[in-house]
Design brief:
By secondary structure, the chain is α+β, with helices and mostly antiparallel strands. It has 2 helices and 5 strands, in the order E-H-E-E-E-E-H. It has a single domain, classed as 2-Layer Sandwich (TATA-Binding Protein). 33% of the residues lie in helices and 39% in strands. Strand 2 and strand 3 form a beta hairpin. Helix 1 packs across helix 2. The longest helix is centred in the C-terminal third of the chain and has 15 residues. It is globular and about 35 Å long.
Length: 89
């Protein structure tokens, strides 16, 4: 889990864009002012689940899970892309 300085709806928009950057497929996202989620699939068909929760005033907690067992390197890459997109929102 990682905290980022932005509201959940903006973080979810950035997460969706990060999935596009990484060429993930079947991207589906929903967001509110207090939470959000993005679901997509990698080339191996594993689900990529990104959950966003409000953690304070203009702070969100981001959780990324790849497949059943997880992939720490891919999760970090997604979070880095999310942070990069937040600079433009």
């Amino acid at each position: 889990m990682t905290n980022v300085s932005a509201a959940p709806d903006k973080v979810t928009t950035a997460a969706d864009a990060a999935c596009e950057d990484l060429k993930l497929t079947n991207i589906d996202s929903t967001a509110t002012k207090v939470d959000g989620q993005v679901r997509a699939y990698d080339a191996q068909g594993q689900e990529v689940a990104i959950d966003v929760e409000q953690a304070g005033d203009n702070v969100s907690k981001v959780s990324v899970r790849i497949g059943v067992t997880g992939d720490a390197a891919m999760s970090r890459q997604i979070v880095d892309h999310i942070k990069s997109h937040l600079n433009w929102l």
